[in-house]
Design goal:
The protein is mostly helical. It contains 11 helices and 2 strands, in the order H-E-H-H-H-H-H-H-E-H-H-H-H. Helix 3 packs across helix 4 and helix 4 packs across helix 8. The longest helix has 31 residues.
């Protein structure tokens, strides 16, 4: 009798483990919103502080929006009530002084990090092909940050703010028709302070937000700019070099950590060096320095009059706009770009020296 053997039983496939409810919920949300698209690869060099300055600047913008929403609930933008409402925020609103202090210092931090971000991009040649358009967006946002600082100074409606506005009105007159918006006659039934308030809380933030979204989309399209010491391909993307990469979401977490540390520093500055607000302004006198980012223009104004502010600011932004179109050298390392680096160093040193002179030299009277 022949003994038969049955074939070995096939192994039973393991039952797939059911995904948790939160994973399933995330899949539903991600399928609709495409959040996982943020996980595009980012080179390791982009996760240090210098390459995160743009993200830190954006985080300060968020802090300004949040604190600004609170402050506008108690601010009166009319010339008759503006200064008193700021004092009321400082003295009578719970945490009002602290919130205003964080708003003030976040504005200073946003200017500093934006300026350092521009300097880092110049130093590493990150504006080169194909990122010329994104550089121009960054320059435009930097200009809007300066406008936000100016309008925020005016809104205090103390002597410093009043003199800043007076300078701006007279520069508008120098511009003729191009400066008509800055004239009190543009809308005679609406005080210019109210219009600057609208610019500060609506126009400028909306423009910054729109340009920021565009800026971020171009970063995603072109990827983080390559390290200047590493090779790039013809499209300006970092060539394969063995450098590790992390998803962009990891980069966002790193930026968040840096921003939280900076926010803690701003909180300490708010307690130790709270911003002041002077009494209501007195017309016909000129006794204050402008905010420190404008000191270098103040020195030019001392030398050649009010037009110095106009010419100095225009020259700076024309130079910034021309940077990617003049420096066509394909190499990115600073040692390989002596002309561009020399010009950048001269401009930087000139701004620093002019700013120091504004403090140490006696100021001339500029307002008519």
């Amino acid at each position: 009798m022949t003994e038969t053997t049955s074939p070995p039983a096939s192994p039973v496939a393991p039952t797939p483990r059911r995904r948790g409810w939160y994973r399933r919920a995330w899949d539903v949300v991600d399928d609709r919103l495409g959040i996982s698209a943020l996980r595009y690869p980012v080179p390791e060099h982009a996760n240090n502080v210098a390459w995160s300055l743009g993200g830190i600047t954006a985080a300060m913008f968020v802090v300004l929006i949040v604190t600004g929403i609170i402050l506008v609930q108690f601010y009166n933008p009319t010339p008759e009530g503006a200064n008193a409402s700021v004092r009321d925020i400082e003295q009578n609103i719970w945490l009002g002084s602290f919130i205003r202090g964080v708003h003030f210092w976040a504005a200073q931090a946003m200017y500093v990090t934006a300026a350092l971000h521009l300097l880092r991009i110049v130093f590493t040649g990150s504006y080169k092909k194909p990122r010329e358009g994104n550089w121009l967006l960054g320059v435009a946002m930097f200009g809007l940050v300066i406008l936000a600082l100016f309008t925020g100074t005016v809104l205090k409606w103390d002597q410093e703010g009043y003199e800043a506005l007076s300078h701006n009105v007279e520069i508008g007159q120098l511009l003729g028709g191009a400066g008509v918006w800055f004239s009190p006659d543009f809308a005679q039934n609406v005080p210019i302070l109210v219009r600057l308030y609208g610019a500060h809380v609506v126009i400028i933030p909306v423009l910054i937000f729109g340009l920021l979204v565009w800026h971020a989309l171009l970063i995603k399209r072109h990827r983080i700019s390559p390290h200047p010491s590493l090779p790039t391909d013809a499209s300006g993307t970092q060539a394969a070099s063995g450098e590790p990469t992390e998803p962009f979401t990891y980069h966002l977490r790193r930026v968040s950590v840096f921003a939280l540390v900076l926010l803690g520093v701003l909180g300490i500055l708010t307690v130790l060096l709270p911003p002041v607000v002077g009494p209501e302004p007195v017309a016909g006198v000129e006794v204050t320095l402008p905010p420190w980012p404008f000191w270098w223009m103040f020195t030019l104004e001392d030398w050649i009059g009010l037009s110095g502010i106009l010419y100095g600011g225009a020259a700076l932004f024309i130079l910034l706009i021309l940077v990617p179109f003049v420096d066509r050298n394909a190499r990115r390392h600073w040692r390989s770009r002596p002309v561009a680096m020399t010009i950048a160093a001269v401009v930087f040193v000139a701004i620093v020296v002019l700013s120091i002179l504004a403090v140490v030299l006696p100021a001339a009277k500029h307002l008519m």
